[in-house]
From TrEMBL:
Keywords: Ubiquinone. The keyword NADP does not apply. The keyword Cell membrane does not apply. Pathway: Isoprenoid biosynthesis; isopentenyl diphosphate biosynthesis via mevalonate pathway. InterPro entries: UbiD, UbiD-like_C, UbiD_Rift_dom. It comes from Thermogladius calderae. This is Anhydromevalonate phosphate decarboxylase. Its cofactor is prenylated FMN. GO terms for cellular component: cytoplasm.
Length: 425
């Protein structure tokens, strides 16, 4: 189990960590992370209470190390076990882990990341809500308005459903906003299991820590590994949220969103406040968008292509819109079936490229080479029109768009000698 605190202790002992000292909350964290993409970055917000950690997931090797696996297949199987068999949660005493503090929203590590952003943001806030016996944990960006008010972006998923149902009954929705969670709970909160499956149980299965505590006012279960817990309500009031630079490096539009109003703040008794500062459109953002989807794509593809080797949502597509699948094909049509299965596993994907097992899915040059040498556009390029798509894609603003499939595998009935890339002597 690696808490955010133990991870910070570990990275501070390593030579591949950049300690930036105190930074201004406007733009400086973004500049430092862009300047040191190959290092974990540690900093404090000037005049603030928080130690911030960025670039936790610099590469796939970091992911393997944090999840104690030897490769992607082992990683996917570990995540899928937790996804389908969440751990039972054990409720402990809240006062053993947290103490109430006299905070306002001004005391939280809000950062303005880009000039295009409409304000100061929290990017790793996780909101936990319970309604009619169902609990949900999910990421939501939070924009600062005042010391007692913030807006959060809620897309039409489970929390949206809870908020809508609560507001339609004339009630605000009680929630707990948590900061400084461990990476396992972060990954779980970035997943989208069926409604009724509590993501905290998935995180507990991944981490081995099943203890939660119930907040004093609203009795909402939160993981004991949180650094700060903020009880509050998602009110029926709305304010403007955005613009905000999203995972594709584009400025998302300004829109009216629900207002979050804090009620009480609780700080960990374990030490200093630590925060995962996710700089939008950088490696941490890519990992927490793409990694939760890859195991589901892998599972879907494996049903039709037992020889699937690797799945990757590429950073060029924001780890969301472009996927590369490598397979060891054994039957005609298998590559196309693999592509269609990948789209089933992740319907937001816009482009799927299927390659042979000798092509490194993490090397764009190898993928381009496979397209150049193994695909025949008249036969291997397929466009599916009018399919469900991602609203992150500016060409699919209403959630409907086109899909592109590229089959870049060797024809099954032709010899490898014709297609195998030579190695340097």
């Amino acid at each position: 189990m690696t808490t955010l605190r133990s991870l910070l202790d570990s990275v501070l002992k390593r030579s591949d960590t950049y300690v930036a000292g105190e930074l201004e909350a406007e733009y400086e964290p973004t500049r430092i992370v862009y300047k040191h993409p190959d290092k974990r970055v540690v900093f404090r917000i000037k005049d603030g209470k928080w130690i911030c950690l960025s670039n936790i997931f610099r590469s796939r090797l970091d992911v393997h190390e944090l999840f104690n696996v030897r490769g992607d297949v082992e990683l996917y199987e570990k995540i899928l076990r937790a996804y389908y068999s969440p751990a039972p949660l054990e409720v402990d005493d809240f006062d053993k882990y947290y103490a109430r503090v006299d905070f306002t929203l001004r005391d939280l590590p809000f950062i303005r990341f880009y000039r295009e952003d409409g304000g100061m943001y929290l990017t790793s806030a996780i909101f936990i809500a319970c309604l009619e016996g169902v609990c949900n944990s999910s990421f939501h960006r939070v924009m600062y308005i005042s010391e007692d008010k913030a807006t959060l972006r809620i897309v039409p998923r489970h929390l949206y459903y809870m908020v809508k149902k609560s507001h339609e009954s004339g009630k605000d929705l009680p929630v707990a906003m948590v900061l400084g969670l461990d990476v396992y709970q972060e990954l779980a909160s970035a997943m989208s299991p069926p409604y009724g499956v509590f993501e905290v149980g998935i995180g507990a299965a991944l981490s081995g820590v099943s203890k939660v505590v119930k907040t004093p006012v609203f009795k909402i279960p939160v993981p004991v590994t949180s650094t700060l817990v903020v009880e509050g309500i998602i009110s029926r009031e709305e304010e403007w949220e955005g613009p905000f630079v999203d995972i594709l490096g584009l400025a998302d539009e300004r829109r009216k969103q629900p207002v979050f109003k804090p009620v009480a703040y609780y700080s960990t008794l374990a030490g200093e406040l630590i925060y995962h500062a996710i700089v939008p459109a950088t490696s941490d953002h890519f990992a927490l968008m793409g990694l939760p989807r890859e195991p589901l794509i892998y599972e879907s593809v494996r049903r039709v292509s037992p020889g699937v080797k690797k799945v990757r949502l590429s950073s060029g597509g924001g780890s969301w819109l472009i996927g590369v699948i490598s397979i060891e094909q054994s039957t005609r049509g298998e590559a196309l079936n693999a592509a269609l299965a990948a789209l089933t596993g992740h319907p937001s994907m816009k482009v799927v490229v299927v390659v042979d097992e000798d092509v490194d899915v993490d090397d764009p040059l190898q993928v381009e080479w496979a397209i150049a040498t193994r695909s025949k556009p008249g036969e291997d390029v397929i466009v599916l029109r009018g399919a469900k798509a991602s609203t992150l894609d500016p060409r699919s603003p209403n959630g409907v768009g086109d899909k592109l499939i590229i089959i870049a595998t060797k024809p099954l009935d032709e010899p490898w000698s014709k297609y195998r890339r030579v190695n340097p002597p």
